[in-house]
Amino acid sequence: MALNNLPLHRYLWICAVVAGVAIAAFTLPRHGVPRVGRGFNPGNIAVQVGETLEQLMAVQAWGLNRVTVWVSDINGAEILDVELEHRENGLPLTVSRTTVELTGAGKLPIQFAPARSQRHAEFVLRLRPRSADGAGTVTFEATEGHEYREGRLWLMGAELPFDLVLDGAALTDRPWPAFAGVLHRQTGVHGLEWAFALAYLGGACAIIRFAVTPAAP
After folding, report:
1. Alpha-carbon distance 58 to 8, whole Å?
2. Which of these, 81, 97, 179, 205, has the minimum number of CB atoms within 10 Å of its CB?
3. Per-residue pLDDT for 109 more than 90?
4. Integer Cα distance of 27 and 173 in angstroms
């Protein structure tokens, strides 16, 4: 029996499967970006103004552009100087720098220009608190080092048995938000991606309905 002679409920079921596969392919997060949860033994790392905390990260997704860390306490520090060093085969290639204002405890997203990395790249995230009077502390949430096996953490060159609690994001880890962002930047219109999604699903269901013609008797 040709597809266009299928019962309605079977046709709708096939369309639902196509829609489900498309949604999963475009929205499932964190393909090859680091994500470190609090784990079973969470902790805290206090970093004084002027000290440097360094976290090694293994990244497989292309275009790493955001790392979110969690701050549990701020005492006197005002600014966080941030560096993201991109390495390939252990050799440093580029360093992106930015500053983030410290306003309160909670998650702290740090945005960078997308890194044009290859697969199995390494990045070193460096965090250095700063204040006008040269005094203060920022306390970051951390977890025992077994939580993220590709990571290593240093404070002023001394290795610690922890990893920072963090969440990475890249252009290719979630294609749908990346596609939506490109459309918005190019057109200035919010929500245009949903028109493309409806057109895609409508076209897929139409192909399923009409692609196969009844066989000749």
Report:
1. 48
2. 97
3. yes
4. 9
